[in-house]
């Protein structure tokens, strides 16, 4: 049998590839009509899009701003630069200058986008954005004080927390609280979109969902944290401890709730020194958990509880299937 030369093989493979490619190229004819349909749909205004002459805030830039703020609030923890008392002022000046410019730029985009979407009169977005960024920077010492109290609450409430460094570096609950305190200040300053981007960034990392509009006092501690939900109109007092899976939510809402109930209180109030154990669910804007109360694991509440009250589920009856269980003394 005659062996094919290498060149002959290459020609056969090339011919086969060309034959295979031609039908695939023909399918490109399906693209133009779909492009026209998509374009018409977006142009109609029925589909969400950002076809506007103003920039929209950058999700990636907002996330970077959160990490910049963390470097400023906890210098030396999240940077390769080794800091000393002599270099700290230079470091903070450099970081704050960059943070200020980046934050002002994203705030400007958020305000312009909001104004354009709602057909609002010009409110000097550029100047306002720098004023708001300046106000946010002025609030950083206060935010830092609150975060230090949150760290101390963690050390007091969790025997497994050996020192502040461990909390700052590794506790998801603390990171979620840090992001909340930044985002909440921007809410107070009237910044649209950005606070929610921040809170969703924290949620994507920690599985802790704290709406930036919630009101949370000092010395807040979230232990473990995954699955915690804090609704937009929730009010939480001082020295409150929350465990994983806790939901502070709204009651069942009608279909038009987004418009009808937007400015009403839909989420509970948790007073000072309350402990909410794992998977507790507390719902409703008129529901108040009184000071120093303890809500046990898996409890479901839609009504208020007075101060100094414990709410617990009865011990469930366990049913054992199979061999009889051994007693503590080893006998059966």
Describe this structure in words.
This protein has helices spanning 6-26, 31-43, 59-73, 85-117, 125-138, 140-157, 164-170, 172-188, 194-206, 257-260, and strands at residues 209-210, 215-216, 221-223, 229-230, 235-236, 241-243, 247-249, 269-270, 275-276, 281-283, 288-289, 294-295, 300-301, 310-311. By secondary structure, the chain is an alpha/beta fold. It has 3 domains: 6-43, no CATH class; 55-207, Orthogonal Bundle (serine acetyltransferase, domain 1), CATH 1.10.3130; 214-332, Hexapeptide repeat proteins (UDP N-Acetylglucosamine Acyltransferase, domain 1). The protein has a 5-stranded parallel beta sheet with strand order 1-4-7-10-13. Helix 3 crosses helix 9 and helix 8 (172-188) runs antiparallel to helix 9. The model has no long low-confidence stretch (mean pLDDT 89).
Keywords:
alpha/beta; serine acetyltransferase, domain 1; UDP N-Acetylglucosamine Acyltransferase, domain 1; 5-stranded parallel sheet
What does this entry show, briefly?
With 332 residues, the chain is α/β, with parallel strands linked by helices. It is built from 10 helices and 14 strands.
Strands of the widest sheet, in order across it, are 1-4-7-10-13
Uncertain runs with pLDDT below 50, 5 residues or more?
none
Strand fraction equals: 5-15%
Quickly count the domains. Answer: 3
Distance between the termini: 81 Å
Shape: globular
